[in-house]
Amino acid sequence: MTQAFPADSIGLVAPQTYSFTEPFTLACGRTLEQFDLVVETYGELNADKSNAVLICHALSGDHHAAGYHSSEDRKPGWWNGYIGPGKPIDTDKFFVVSLNNLGGCSGSTGPGSVNPETGKVWGADFPKLRVRDWVHSQARLADRLGISQWAAVVGGSLGGMQAMRWALEYPSRLRHCVVIASAMKLSAQNIAFNETARQAIMADPEFHGGDYFNHHTYPKSGLAVARMIGHITYLSDHVMGEKFGRELRSGSFTQGLDEAVEFQVESYLRYQGDTFSDRFDANTYMLMTRALDYFDLAREYNDDPATAFRRAQCDFYVASFTTDWRFPVERSREIVDALIAAQKNVSYTEIESPYGHDAFLLPNEHYRAAFGRYMAGIITE
Amino acid sequence: MTQAFPADSIGLVAPQTYSFTEPFTLACGRTLEQFDLVVETYGELNADKSNAVLICHALSGDHHAAGYHSSEDRKPGWWNGYIGPGKPIDTDKFFVVSLNNLGGCSGSTGPGSVNPETGKVWGADFPKLRVRDWVHSQARLADRLGISQWAAVVGGSLGGMQAMRWALEYPSRLRHCVVIASAMKLSAQNIAFNETARQAIMADPEFHGGDYFNHHTYPKSGLAVARMIGHITYLSDHVMGEKFGRELRSGSFTQGLDEAVEFQVESYLRYQGDTFSDRFDANTYMLMTRALDYFDLAREYNDDPATAFRRAQCDFYVASFTTDWRFPVERSREIVDALIAAQKNVSYTEIESPYGHDAFLLPNEHYRAAFGRYMAGIITE
């Protein structure tokens, strides 16, 4: 039977697992004796290995960024709109590497893996991670793939933080840094939302301090509430209004039980919360939101981002979206200002979109054109 | 021992309970055979009873709006900055009536009261309420006090919704309607935040579908998470930044347990959540957020607010705050536009404040002056 994938799709893809057995010391001081990373690649690595692009995922992302895992897949990877033949991250030109980060729950070593020292699931005992730990583990992956320098490191949101950290930690190992809908650090409000999400998980008695594997439980409802909080903040007020208005689900007030779903938006949120908590691991969610909160690009550079960016040797592309209130345009402008102060080459696009933070994942002509132009300008030999 | 209250305070006040024994049919169709309202009054009712002002409280408010309950009180009532001698709601001029709404948890009949028909605590079986039910119960209170017409009905946030509903339900019973930091209906985003808060409560296994009294439990952690969600949305991003920045609690990352409180803002939020869940009833929170979600001023007026407001006979004062993103200035401007279209007298002040939705409770010179001027212009005989 012929598989009919869209012509501009990379088509069928399959993840691969890479095992790393050299001890890996983390920012928190603890050492992992070994770890696995699940990776997908799209396109071909060229002869001088100068066309590799690293994709860094955001909070709830994974390695499956583009293409399809089977002909039955209803949905392609999470960034399929921007990775593929003729797309901004053009797989006819680039060799694209996308991984599930350390600590993740899609196959890479994380809280759901077995701790080889104890023979038990790590659970809450999995070491706390910082963005730099991901960057260092990604560098090991680059070593394994024989990639001494990325043509570009690319990420949106938490992924953009990884891209910026790459530019500071391994200045000679990337030529371009692409930072989309991100920030040099979270605002107090952002931290507050993440903390509330974590509280929702911890409040679930099935969480057992993260030790739910050993208790044969799962904090599904806590994680669902956490996701609902996150989800509201990824959408703009406007798009929620457009999407749901104040539509009543039944056409009239039922005024029934508290459990009754009255508004369409409630039904949508409950669905989002439920499906997310079916597929995602609560400990990973705790760990990833913590890494997001801790990230502070310039913390060890006297809180001066220009000083930090002076270490960088690559060029930068920065993009933001007008209705993103979780990573607002001001945060991206701060990045651009710091880069200019550090005398770096930076291109910046502020993209009109009604879709809030989610816009970085969604189709948008201006975004695609501007992002595509920047990526097309990258020299790969 | 002399009690030393601030000179501009109304001083010592004491709540009173009024019992209503006529059957009271609610918007949902159910009937309360009796109910109590807890009420505080400040100032003196004048001879022709023309100087009475009704205060309508918001989501988590109660009857204790001004003054002190004892000389040991560390804090006065919730709107003490705006109610008292020489203050905008001047107790030298007005007779101020402030009540805990029906369904509340500060002494008025609500989910925590005993259902006289069953002899058991109502719990989740307490009838669902709409804003109009509060208005009708407040009208009964006015009857009891012999007040045929309020000089003004005043409220902020959910209280402003009650004030507007008064103007439509009892056009001849108020001369002025004061609507602060409110809206004619919530946006989908607002409903989504409320729904997530309710989900947090329902996810707490101690909630038992609202029947926690009979289970001798209390959904404290769920209610705390609900309050944290609410609290973030009442503050502006800016003020959270000013108040907490990204200050670490210990001065450095501990990277310890997930339970560790790393940022000041987390510590603050947990405190807010905990103290609120100690004093507030979860069923009341469910019920009040539902009333907030359901409110839609113009729903039965062909969704045309000008048509709705044409019923009103009073004058209006509307105020909003620049950084309030839960009830943004646009929502107040819509009220003003509709009032103008309905050919009503309306004064409007847009107040510069960094404090988000909470600003309506906080000291602010411009707010105090503008609100005070409007109230001073009200003729009381």
Automatic annotation (TrEMBL), chains A, B:
Binding positions for substrate?
Answer: R227, D358
Q: Name one GO biological process term.
A: homoserine metabolic process
Q: Does the keyword Acyltransferase apply?
A: yes
Function recorded in the entry: Transfers a succinyl group from succinyl-CoA to L-homoserine, forming succinyl-L-homoserine.
What are the annotated GO cellular component locations?
cytoplasm
Which family does the entry's similarity section mention?
Belongs to the AB hydrolase superfamily. MetX family.
* Official protein name in the record: Homoserine O-succinyltransferase
- Where in the cell is the protein located? Cytoplasm
Q: Which reaction does it catalyse?
A: L-homoserine + succinyl-CoA = O-succinyl-L-homoserine + CoA
Q: Which residues form the AB hydrolase-1 domain?
A: 51-361
Q: EC? A: 2.3.1.46
Give the main location.
Answer: cytoplasm
For this UniProt record, give its keywords in alphabetical order, as a comma-separated list: Acyltransferase, Amino-acid biosynthesis, Cytoplasm, Methionine biosynthesis, Transferase
Q: Which PANTHER family match?
A: HOMOSERINE O-ACETYLTRANSFERASE
Annotated organism of origin: Gilvimarinus xylanilyticus
Relate the assembly described in the record.
Homodimer.
Which positions are catalytic residues? S157, D324, H357
Q: Pathway, according to UniProt?
A: Amino-acid biosynthesis; L-methionine biosynthesis via de novo pathway; O-succinyl-L-homoserine from L-homoserine: step 1/1
Record site: Important for acyl-CoA specificity: R326
